Amino acid sequence: MNAYRRFRYSHAMADWVDQLRGGFVVFDGPDGSGKSTQFRRFMEHVESSGVPVCQVREPGGTPIGERIRDVLLDPEHDGMDLRCEMLLYMASRAQLVAHRIAPAQDAGELVLADRFISSTLAYQGAAGGIPVADILRVGQIALGKYWPDLVVVFDVDEQTAAARLSPLLDRMEQKGADYHRLVRQGFLDQAQSDPQRYLVIDARGDADEVFDELCDAIARRFAESGDHS
User: CA 25, CA 115: separation in Å to the nearest integer?
Assistant: First the structure.
């Protein structure tokens, strides 16, 4: 980022950074979208402005959740039933809400999550075929009142995503092009159906370009809404 961009962002951040306190923001998107890179950059950017951040990842984020993560992503478990898969994600999520997310929000921290229920709706819902209503019913049990204020979807075409993935694919990454095409559409459909809660970022560019777009888009969103709800 050049000097002008750094100057502009430092002032733009000051206008809305405090509105992130006590909020809940999710970074999500297809495998290979680069969301985890942007997650780290955004977290560092916000923390440098004085906002306390509770960062979590899914599945995992707690000792129990990390054990569930190992089961979910192990390529040896290719015979896992889809409903079992969905329920394991929700079990990890319930533990995360109880032990990390709820205490952080109660303390006025920004919760920044790498994936959340939006992933379940895309992977096990849109791509897997579990009805959205069923996922949301289980989600209500797992999440209670702790639903995201904003879901940032990093959208990327299949060719770019595939080129970014490690050759050592986990169980979810190994599911094939048709599956991941449905996953991508699932995220876009969520954003289209709830534009007040979702923000789609074109993630095809390099990391600096995507980060610039992310900061611009979130600044515009806060300027329009005046808060994180």
Answer: 10
Q: What angle do CA 72, 106, 146 make, to 5 degrees?
A: 45
Nearest alpha-carbon partner for 57 in 15, 19, 28: 28
Nearest partner of 29 among 130, 128, 181, 152, judged by Cα? 152
Higher pLDDT among residues 222 and 205, named by residue:
205
State which amino acid sits at residue 208. Answer: D
CB 96 within 8 Å of CB 56: yes
Distance of alpha carbon 30 from alpha carbon 173, whole angstroms? 9
3-class secondary structure for 44-65?
HHHHCCCCCEEEEECCCCCHHH
pLDDT at 18 over 80: no
* DSSP symbol at 17: G
Unique residue bearing structure tokens 């100057």: 7
Look at residue 168 in the predicted model and tell me its pLDDT. Answer: 46
Q: 27, 168 in Cβ contact below 8 A?
A: no
Domains, in order of start, for the chain = 21-225 (3.40.50.300)
User: How far is the C-alpha of 125 from the C-alpha of 104, rounded, in Å?
Assistant: 29
The answer to whether residues 175 and 123 touch, using CB atoms and an 8 Å cutoff, is no
Other C-beta atoms within 10 Å of 205: how many?
15
Structure tokens at 71: 């089961």
How far, in Å, CA of 115 to CA of 183, rounded?
A: 13
- DSSP annotation of 197: T
Mean pLDDT of 116-139: 97
